[in-house]
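SEQUENCE-TO-STRUCTURE ENTRY
===========================
What this section holds: a protein sequence and its matching fold, both as plain text.
Tokens: labelled as protein backbone structure tokens, with as many entries as the chain has residues.
Question of interest: how does this chain fold, as expressed in backbone structure tokens?
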Amino acid sequence: MSQIILTTGRGTKLRQNDSSLMTLNITPKDPKEKSQLNQVMMILEDILIPINHVGIASTDGIKVTIPPENAYMVLNTSETTICVETGEIDYTQHSILYDPYLYEHEDHVDYDSAEFIKTYDIPAGYTDVLPKWYSIKFSYPEFNLIFVRPGLGISLQSHAKREEYWEIAAGEPIVISGSKVSYNNPQGTKFYIPLGNLHTIINPSKDVWVILKETYKGNFDEKDIVRVFNPNHYN
């Protein structure tokens, strides 16, 4: 039996079940904290959902069945440490679609925007640049262009003061919008992000940057971001 320990704010890798039907048994490390499991979320193929909405209560936790060929990822958005047991299935042989901790042990240096502009074809007219070590955003009067580094994604987040309109300008990212998870979204795919909806964009490519064109209505304020899962700020 394999066991994964997830402290608060940590998640598993997003994998695809390449074998037979498997069951995850998710339990709190401290049995007294069983009620905290109601706050744990997971990706199960094309949905993002609390585990208690998709699993079956067991004596010590919640059991979730993963069908063959389905993607799965557990996100510990609770306030306690949890254990994820995978039974007899060797989950390490399953395909990895996204590893949120790919660069956890490397130095995280924000991109030099001047050097980035020399390397990539950035349209003229931007008024501001927000460089991070995993992405870089160019702001224009009517939209933003967000470049997402290969293998990484932005935080799973929501906003109370703005709704967003996304269009994939390059790459084939994984996108979460509300409870919907979609894969391999080609250039031109559009998404509407209503107020309060959880959303993120993940770049599963090993070498191609994702470019997201983002427009919005409402108050664009970085302080309006509520991050539910933020793997780029490691604990």
